[in-house]
Design brief:
445 residues; 8-stranded antiparallel β-sheet; globular
């Protein structure tokens, strides 16, 4: 991914255009800073505020929205990385905000520790992933942000605010998923546990069966998800449950075939073909949906939860009340079948328990997620617009870091604690130092 030209906090310089991983968002900041310490970051924020410039932190650009875009000061937190402290008694680890999830997972494994749940990719920074509500799938365990036990935040006046359930609890209640609106996160304390084994069972299943048995699969598995291949009646399911071990990962040949050849290499080729000749997509989908076979393997959590994602795409994801997801999926399938749309990416379905974070997509309700994707460079608006119409009819909440068209009026209607968040924002950032066009749309002004 092309990145902006970066300077240090004390010696910044004008930046070139920055764009996100998917290439659908660009920004040209006035300058880029890469602070080497929290003190340098505080000074960069103070200086920007004095100059009337807005400030946004950007991680690895894995959001599909313009949440991190700015024409002011772009902060790259990558020098603020690594584990600060491990507290085995409390079961926590404190990590710098610019740490990439991949590095955190590997460092935790060396310590014999693990997060309880995580998403399916680990290229994001911890602050970027949590600020936008990144999640995996779980019956009992929630998003990465729900595993936060404390955080540090540089506010608009350059202060460093320490937050937890006991210290600044009203900020903690909101800032775990803050979309960058409340300040710049500098460190996060996560709950962790001794490393454990997960046994993954992947199995093809028909759309009709998996939707009819959805609640049963959800209840019987700690982590259940499935992928439906549009233009077919075929799905691939994945059930992850704790086990005693020992590790029994896929063999190197099997892993390469499934994770690299089929899921990345061949998938890249067929998507390129589908973009060039859309009429081939339904036939390709029927073949692809039958290519994956059943397999079972056991490993430590991050090696089971996460997969390489090298084929670039644009994504929309909505969080629905769990009891509405099957109906919404059937409507989505009917819409695709009667339309002229050609969809080469599978639709992903995951779950999460209710949590207590103000702007979490699972705030206060049992949740199921439906994610739709389109290959990068392929027109996605018609598909996403039709899907969004279905999701919003079921009270859906869009992922903060994925494509959507909703605004503050809509969010106020689907988030009971929306006003609590915006009131806190008014207190912490009345001058909108951390504002941008995206936040103006989704939070109001």
């Amino acid at each position: 991914m092309a990145t902006a030209t970066a300077g240090t906090a004390g010696n910044s310089r004008p930046a070139t255009t920055w764009h996100n991983w998917a290439g659908n968002v660009t920004a040209t900041p006035a300058r880029v800073v890469t602070p080497a310490s929290v003190g340098e970051l505080q000074e960069a924020v103070r200086r920007a505020a004095e100059e009337g410039l807005r400030v946004k932190a950007v991680g690895t650009g894995h959001s599909f929205t313009a949440a991190a875009a700015t024409d002011g000061v772009l902060v790259r937190p990558h020098a603020l990385a690594g584990i600060r402290a491990v507290d085995r008694t409390a079961g926590t680890v404190t990590v710098e905000a610019g740490t990439v999830l991949k590095d955190l997972n590997r460092a935790l494994a060396r310590e014999g520790l693990s997060l309880t749940n995580m998403g399916d990719i680990m290229e994001q920074t911890v602050s970027g992933a949590t600020s936008t509500g990144t999640h995996g799938t779980g019956r009992d365990s929630a998003s990465i942000a729900a595993q936060i036990r404390g955080l540090e935040l540089v506010t608009a006046d350059g202060r460093l605010l320490v937050c937890s359930e006991k210290e600044n609890p009203e900020v903690f209640a909101a800032a775990r998923i803050g979309i960058g609106a409340l300040g710049i996160v500098t460190a996060i304390t996560f709950a962790v546990e001794p490393v454990f084994f997960l046994t993954a069972r992947e199995e093809p299943m028909t759309f009709d069966r998996v939707t009819a048995e959805f609640e049963e699969h959800f209840a019987e598995n700690e982590h259940f998800e499935f992928y439906w291949f549009p233009h077919t009646g075929n799905c691939n399911t994945k059930r992850n449950n704790r086990s005693q071990g020992p590790a029994a990962p896929p063999g190197p040949v099997s892993a390469w075939v499934e994770d690299e050849l089929l899921s990345n290499g061949l998938f890249q080729v067929v998507n390129s073909l589908g973009r060039a000749v859309p009429a081939t997509i339904p036939s390709i989908a029927r073949v692809a949906s039958r290519a994956l076979s059943a397999r079972t393997y056991t490993d430590i959590p991050y090696k089971v939860f996460t997969s390489p994602r090298r084929v670039r795409f644009v994504e929309m994801e909505y969080a629905l009340p769990r009891e509405r997801v099957v109906e919404a999926l059937r409507e989505l399938r009917a819409m695709v079948d009667r339309s002229g749309l050609r969809i080469s990416f599978p639709v992903e379905v995951r779950t999460a328990p209710a949590d207590d974070i103000a702007l979490s997509t699972a705030s206060g309700r049992e949740t199921a997620y439906v994610a739709v994707h389109m290959y990068r460079g392929t027109p996605y608006q018609a598909y996403f617009t039709a899907a969004e119409r279905i999701f919003t009819a079921h009270g859906g909440r869009p992922h903060w870091g994925k494509v959507h068209t909703r605004d503050a009026e809509y969010f106020a209607s689907v988030y009971p604690r929306f006003g609590e968040f915006t009131t806190l924002r008014d207190r912490l950032d009345p001058g909108r130092v951390f504002g941008n066009d995206y936040l103006r749309r989704v939070l109001g002004d």
